[in-house]
Amino acid sequence: MLMKIDKLIRSSGDGFKVEGLEELLRQARRRVDSALKHVRRPEAAVGVIKSPLGDLLVAMTGRGIVLNHYLVDDSDLAATLEKARLQLDLVEDASAVKVVGAEIRGYLAGEGTALRQNIDLSLAASRFQQKVLRKLQDVPRGAVLSYQALGVAAGAPKGARAVGNAMHNNPVPIYVPCHRVIASDGGLGGYGGGAARKLQLLRSEGFSLGDDDVRLPGSVAWGHKGTRIYCRANCRAAARVDRGRILFFADAKDARQAGLRPCKICRPD
Amino acid sequence: MRGFKVMAREKLRLPIRFERIMQRHEREIMGYLLRSSGNRADAADLFQETWLRAYRAYPRLKPDSDVRPWLYAIAVNLSRNRARDGARRARVIVPEDKENPAANRSGEVHRGFTENDGYAAVHLRELMSALPARQREALHLRYFAGLDYAGIATAMDCSQQSARANVSQAMKKLRSMW
Hints:
heterodimer; A: 269 residues; Double Stranded RNA Binding Domain; Arc Repressor Mutant, subunit A; 6-stranded mixed sheet; 4-stranded mixed sheet; elongated; B: 178 residues; mainly alpha
């Protein structure tokens, strides 16, 4: 009367039907959904865009652009996606990120107002880095500042190295302008996407920089964030001020646009 | 102006979405949990816990690895923990019959089954609940979940050899008891 046991077991499934399984599953599913609500990662549309700076991996959440990564090769792509998945539920959607590509192309072509996306800094590695990146968003196009000065602005006057780390970990380069942060001596400093990209970005923002000796030219205007005055580089007033509060402007015009007035000693106009 | 590298690949090849995994595998996971816990309330608890853990851990699953052994590993571990904490013996799963619970437990033919199949299945279930936990897990994963031995080894966190040994010991015991 009994079926052979081997056959019974191997026939995959023991032939035992659980009554009301559908109802049980339905209830269980509801419970899972309500429990997941508390631990869900934000959803992000992700895609690769092409730009004059090479390919970029871009992710957008409901709050804005959350990731903008210079792609070097396929393994870089895989590693970046893997890391982003820890904090975001990624959904591939090339059409959602296309707008970013258009904005970056426009920006590099000289439209200063092209970058319009909101920025979501939730991938910043720490509260401090988030704060630094937020302060950095205030630095206008056509201006640069030193790591030290950004540290002062973020409340860490001795934290130039820490600011450097924050720049290195910037999840949204270009949009959060970490290319506008340079060494205190006027040297270019590093860049996550490589010095060439930093140069290209700064040139598109009005700085005339050579290829060999990459330094800020003497023509830049020194703006002081406290006094809101700008000077020539060789002004005796500029020589005395606290370097931590200096913004360098590509041009006197950029300084005026940022709301600064010319110095009455060196008359930079 | 120097050109920057442009990548050839257009497709990102993201791992499939978690919701799809849930849709595909919720039935078999529930089946496993019902069997291993022996009652609906525990199975429902473990079901929730399994998917919650799976969701948290999903980003750390290597993109090209097989989802099912991984899912079963979570379910297996959770039911082991539950069995240890509750120290309950796995019972025969039958729909709760409030009026006459003893009738179900004794393995009488339930109205939902044809005579042969039903009796054999209930009987089998009883016998399986008498197996040691490891052997029962291995047997379930091999024949009801259909995992291969590599998959069982992943799910039970043991070597392939011991997965194989557990399955064959379980079969041997069942044959002798049948």
